[in-house]
Amino acid sequence: MSGDDLNPAAVPQPVEDRQGDGRWMSQHTRFMQECKDGEPEVLFVGDSMVQLMKQYEIWKEMFSPLHALNFGLAGDTTCNVLWRLQNGELENIRPKVVVLWVGTNNHDHTAEQVAGGIVAIAQLLTNRLPKAKIVVLGLLPRGEQPNPLREKNAAVNRLLRSWLPRLGQTLFLDVSNEFIHSDGTISSQDMFDYLHLTPAGYNTLAKPLSDLLLQILEETPEERRASLV
Amino acid sequence: MSAEASNPAATPTPCEDSQGDGRWMSQHVRFVSECKEREPDVVFVGDSLVQLMHQFGIWRQLFSPLHCLNFGIGGDATQHVLWRLSNGELDNISPKVVVLWVGTNNHGHTAEQIAGGIMEIVQLIHNKLPNAHTLVLGVLPRGRVPNPLRERNAEVNKLVQDALSSLSHASFFNVDPGFVLSDGSISHQDMYDYLHLTAHGYQAVCEPLHAQIKSLLEKPAEN
Known about the structure:
The structure holds two protein chains of two kinds.
Chain A: H1 23-37, E1 42-46, H2 48-53, H3 57-63, E2 68-72, H4 78-86, E3 97-101, H5 111-128, E4 133-137, H6 148-163, E5 170-173, H7 199-219
Parallel strand pairs in A: 1-2, 1-3, 3-4, 4-5
Chain B: H1 23-37, E1 42-46, H2 48-53, H3 57-63, E2 68-72, H4 78-86, E3 97-101, H5 111-128, E4 133-137, H6 148-164, E5 170-173, H7 199-218
Pfam families (chain B): Lipase_GDSL_2
Main location (chain B): cytoplasm
GO cellular component, one term (chain B): cytoplasm
């Protein structure tokens, strides 16, 4: 496995406010506040693929009922997610499951580095939440036609498949194959810009993910709580 | 208005494929095909605020029945929209209304340049579709608290509203229902990342917009 101190994708880094409206920090601050207010059983963390999920009906139907928090932030790389988790977004919460979906925005990094970054985040999560299961989602293919980013994301997924089992407590869910048609294209019905999912696209992912989460939540014994829910 | 050569916001510019998957061009090509296949009465054109509208239930509820096409691309600034409309996205169609919503992504440009870019698009649409009315939507405030981009966007709206007031083929429409609260903040219930609208935010924008478009469609054709 790649050494973390040599892997730029495993170096925590906040996002600079280049545009001038401080939105990244505002969202991070809000997530920290949500850690104080909520007692989530499931925590979703990652980039826009996670963030957008919360805007569609599917979130209310399938994931809110599981007492889920959504800490997705559009544009985030593994470095940014690592920084957020080390700087407040895991305070005061004890979710039973963390769903991690990040890596497609790591444009400056190789597949090995990206996979190493994802593993570093999974490692952090298991250290901070020893009783939690970590569900890592595979990077989806992108672009209408075959292209180098599809190959890169597929390579990341292959590496994750072989590296994650060493961590224990970690599961890998990859629905990539569902999105590529026999002619190699991705449909705008699934990804409106050949990257971000439509509601129909999310349905493809949500069913297996929801089944997996329910299975994990049913297996995990209820912890005694001091206060009544 | 300002000479196009000296205004980068008013110079047609395609988006470079910096990531490597050609998504911007794929979307543009798809829109050009839609122009050959469909006969829309209304075309929406702009950035992610247009594009995401298409993903929410409100689109099917309010706009599909009006025979609308959605040519929004996330990240687009005025110069990108100008390029797309100059390169096929207004061909083979004769919509009665074009809804234009762009400007918030013009980072590094001044309010005057952005307004100039918007007016350049309005002129292009009029040249290509002399019978269409262009409805220019005001650029929304952004950021959780007051910041320079809010001031820039407000200035753009002021300049554009002034410039449009003398035209009969285009008009300004303010779709901000009051997203900025009394304490100066914008709520994440309206804009989940203080820029992009939630379903709730789109509801507040789309209902008045729908009414405005319907009234334009019901008017006799412009000269």
